[in-house]
Write a structure and sequence with these properties.
It is a single chain. By secondary structure, the chain is α+β, with helices and mostly antiparallel strands. It is 23% helix and 23% strand. The protein is built from 4 helices and 5 strands, in the order αβββββααα. Strands 4-3-2-1-5 form a 5-stranded antiparallel β-sheet, with no helix packed on it. The radius of gyration is 29 Å and the shape is elongated.
Length: 162
């Protein structure tokens, strides 16, 4: 299930992006605990941390100004409590309540996509044919089979006898 309206990222990644700017604790595959300011998080869970304190598996601590941690090295991330009230969770509740429909105003088609959807809806409702479109069903007549006189905008008899 995608919360942001596209199918690229899911709930954990959106929550991780919401944690940017907060202090997090990360456990790595080597057994290290890293606590620092989450400056940037990528969709592959690569993290860029600042002002870090790294506790090794033996208990030794060291300070690092900047740290880039690859997502495959991460075992566990402790996020701050304030994210419990993140706006993403209200979107999830809305999606579950209304069967996956996005909240109003989110994901609405604009520009060319909106024009295509509007024309498709007009065709389904029969509004396109009565508003000066094709006079017969299908894709119009032309010179070939189907279509009658005037179906392609040509005066009758212009293309020879039928």
């Amino acid at each position: 299930m995608s919360v942001v309206g596209n199918n690229r990222v899911g709930i954990p990644i959106v929550l991780l992006h919401d944690a940017e700017g907060a202090v997090v604790t990360v456990e790595t595959r080597k057994g290290e605990l890293i606590r620092g300011l989450l400056f940037e998080a990528e969709d592959m869970m690569n993290l860029y941390l600042k002002n870090c304190v790294v506790c090794g598996p033996d208990g030794a601590q060291r300070k690092i100004d900047q740290l880039y941690l690859r997502g495959t090295e991460i075992v566990f991330i402790v996020l701050p409590e304030m994210l419990r009230h993140a706006p993403m969770f209200s979107r999830i509740k809305h999606w579950r309540k209304y069967g996956g429909a996005p909240p109003e105003g989110v994901g609405a088609a604009v520009g060319q996509a909106a024009a295509i959807l509007r024309k498709a809806n007009e065709r389904r409702q029969g509004g396109f044919a009565s508003s000066g479109g094709f006079s017969q069903g299908g894709r119009g007549g032309g010179r070939g089979r189907g279509g009658g006189p005037g179906s392609y905008g040509a005066p009758p008899g212009q293309y020879g006898p039928r």
